[in-house]
Design brief:
Length: 198
Amino acid sequence: MDTTRLIIVAVGGQGNLLTTRVIGEAALLSGTPVRMSEIHGMAQRGGVVESAVVFGDAQSTTIADGEADALVGFEPSETLRAINKCNLNTVVITNLATLPPFTVTLGKSVYPDLNELQDQIRAKTGNLIAFDAAALAKEAGNIMSVNMVLLGSLIQTDILPLSANNVKEAIKTTTKKAFVGSNLKAFELGFTAAKELG
């Protein structure tokens, strides 16, 4: 089986770890070999959280610079920060709703212009799917389901060896019952958004 490497970057509290868990569960359902690792920075204080997911026969979850087949960013500046993991064939999906760091809030730094940020990403990768995932999460009925919107977009690209049905089944078994409905709707909205933008 070919190896597929995925990087997911987010700010603490955005649901990166749940997304990784759903992907792992979907891989188990489909019988796909998968290895995962997570870096938890200062997640509870809004720091970066990064997950590496490797499908196939790889022996390690380490994804070197230029090796990622897909990068999913829950926050645009974090997507740009991880762009060194990409190459000209990497599919990049990013949320355009910003969560500026406290240094920006205090006026000690400036948040990058979103158009320039997208231009910088496009210069280093083959395919960028960028949209406001927070708006779609609200439409799904839960602003916290940004992660499921982005997961839907990722699955639509067909870059991972996972079916949409297995991922939806994993959402049902992995997320709290109260959020299953909104998470599934968010997944579908993200799937459709990627189809329209891709």
